[in-house]
């Protein structure tokens, strides 16, 4: 059994002894004897339960999260609120109901997409990591249903208006987004060390799916960034000539790289006429637009499919996990099938019938 005692030169009580054949010598982290005795009893009980029932009865969310990060399985983004919420909750007690409650409590005014991204996805990843270590069962979670959004992309003439309407510091960045399909974060934190103008190629080292990828550069992109006055550090700079700030893990609102260029991008959309005006507070007109920085990625993908009809190449260049994720860009190009529909039986007969009617 465990007993508490003190080491020389240490103010803290330690736990020492053997439980179920396991030799233990651990600090209680306290100089209070009464508290140390409570910690000893709890620890002894944990060891006995683990020996009898396995780790599934003692592993907490905090344990699983720490191990998840230690093994490089993820980053700290969105995890701090989850740790504060679940902390010492046993993994076996984190079920669908517990996660649903956490999502509502942590993000009461957020939509399904935000709750999915900031609660369900990271919690699921941590639980799956724990399940691989036999600390809990593999989670089977139902996620919030998200409304199917319309795939917004720009026609070439719209894209040209947007580029011309951009402020000088934003123009090369928007050209880059439109012709590489880069996510906003991949672009605004791109370093010159990953750009090769001679080979007309860029490499995105840190990506959303965790896999580096290289993309050929369109001549317009090469020309655009070749005219930038610097060749080291960040490729794209703010209007003040500074690199864009990295995301702040402590700010819930800082969830998208696009927010770092959102104001300037929206101003460009307004100048380009890509939006509409609605009454605001005090009947002051407010500009609205459905064109965001991420629309540039949709635009590139749609253009690429129009030009090449190759979903596999599009998947590889865009960094999507599966080809199914790029099918929507084929759906956006439904007009390509018009000729085939017109060639179906009776279509031409209908035209002939109309001609006969006109003659008679």
TrEMBL record:
Keywords for the protein's UniProt record, in alphabetical order: DNA integration, DNA recombination
| InterPro entries, sorted | DNA_brk_join_enz, Integrase-like_cat_sf, Integrase_catalytic, Tyrosine_recombinase_XerCD
* Xref: Pfam families: Phage_integrase
Per its UniProt record, what PROSITE patterns does this chain match?
A: TYR_RECOMBINASE (PS51898)
Domain Tyr recombinase intervals: 149-343
Q: Name one GO biological process term.
A: DNA integration
- Top-level taxon of the source organism: Bacteria
GO molecular function terms attached to this record: DNA binding
Its protein name is Tyrosine-type recombinase/integrase
């Amino acid at each position: 059994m465990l007993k508490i005692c003190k080491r020389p030169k240490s103010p803290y009580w330690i736990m020492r002894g053997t439980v179920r054949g396991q030799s233990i010598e651990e600090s209680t982290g306290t100089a209070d004897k009464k508290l140390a005795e409570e910690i000893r009893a709890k620890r002894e009980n944990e060891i006995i339960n683990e020996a009898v029932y396995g780790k599934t009865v003692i592993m907490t969310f905090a344990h699983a999260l720490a191990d998840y990060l230690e093994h490089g399985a993820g980053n700290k983004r969105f995890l701090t609120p989850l740790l504060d919420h679940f902390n010492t909750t046993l993994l076996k007690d984190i079920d669908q109901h517990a996660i649903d409650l956490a999502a509502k409590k942590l993000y009461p005014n957020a939509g399904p997409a935000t709750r999915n991204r900031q609660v369900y996805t990271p919690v699921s990843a941590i639980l799956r990591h724990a399940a691989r270590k036999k600390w809990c069962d593999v989670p089977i979670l139902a996620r919030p249903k998200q409304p199917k959004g319309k795939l917004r992309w720009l026609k070439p003439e719209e894209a040209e208006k947007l580029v011309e309407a951009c402020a000088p510091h934003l123009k090369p960045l928007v050209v880059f987004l439109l012709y590489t399909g880069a996510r906003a974060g991949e672009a605004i934190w791109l370093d010159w060390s990953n750009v090769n103008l001679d080979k007309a190629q860029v490499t995105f080292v840190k990506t959303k799916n965790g896999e580096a990828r290289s993309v050929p550069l369109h001549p317009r992109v090469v020309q655009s960034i070749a005219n930038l006055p610097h060749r080291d550090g960040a490729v794209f700079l703010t209007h003040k000539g500074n690199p864009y700030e990295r995301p702040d893990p402590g700010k819930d609102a800082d969830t998208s790289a696009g927010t770092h260029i959102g104001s300037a991008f929206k101003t460009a959309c307004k100048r380009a006429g890509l939006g509409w005006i609605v009454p605001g507070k005090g009947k002051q007109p407010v500009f609205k637009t459905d064109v965001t920085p991420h629309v540039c990625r949709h635009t590139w993908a749609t253009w690429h499919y129009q030009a090449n009809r190759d979903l596999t190449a599009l998947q590889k260049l865009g960094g999507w996990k599966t080809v199914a994720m790029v099918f929507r860009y084929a759906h956006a190009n439904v007009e390509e099938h018009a000729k085939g529909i017109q060639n179906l039986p009776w279509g031409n007969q209908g035209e002939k019938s109309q001609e006969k009617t006109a003659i008679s």
